[in-house]
Here is the input.
Amino acid sequence: MNYVYKIGIYSSKDFELKEDLVRRKIIFPCRLGILFCETGLAESFFEELSNKLNNVFDSFFFTIQNLGRYTFSDHMLKKAVKNANKKGKDFAEKNYNLHSTNKFYTILIQERVKHDLDMIAAITDLPLFSSHDDTILFLFGEAHLKHACCIISTLKLKESFYNRKENQRLLEQRIIKEVIHEIGHFFLGHEHCVDQSCVFCFSNNLEDIDNKAIHFCNSCQQKFEDLKTKFNI
Ligand SMILES: [Zn+2]
Ligand SMILES: [Zn+2]
Here is the structure.
């Protein structure tokens, strides 16, 4: 399913990540940070999110830090942007400026180092395209395993995107699922779970997200138990 039929050219080059940045090995329990980057989400959402993360990733984090809000400068907002026209049966045709995932990773790596964190996740309302494959547009989220950072876009998680009445509760549940999923990649690697009801299965659309649980399946859970044994936590 691909509704994109017209893609603009880059307004500027994408961000190159410094691959020579050596990351220290993660020892569990570790430190996680959450950054609210260009999002209208209320600060109070952090509490619910961190409770759920502490619940699902039981004993893996000794801190989940709220890194607060981050706003792009005008210069940054214009860099590494792709213009795409999205059209579908459920929503009105509209032009979007999509932002590269590397742009977010660049900021996240800086923030991770600055706050002495092991892992970092960001939530944004902006639409995304993948720096790994720039034909992948309007992502729900993406994780960069080497740099232990991930980004989640709320755009397509909103009911209003599909011309339906906004449902804040539902939106927050979807965001939590996607944050758990992306952070899950740091522990479980690139390969997704095949269980459609597991939070770690791949979601192609909103329906897939709504149909999956807000936690890991037994098989994924076992992998976490094995990690706990390995790290003696
Ligand atoms: Zn995934
Ligand atoms: Zn699973």
Q: What stands out?
A: Residues 1-9 have pLDDT under 50 and may be disordered.
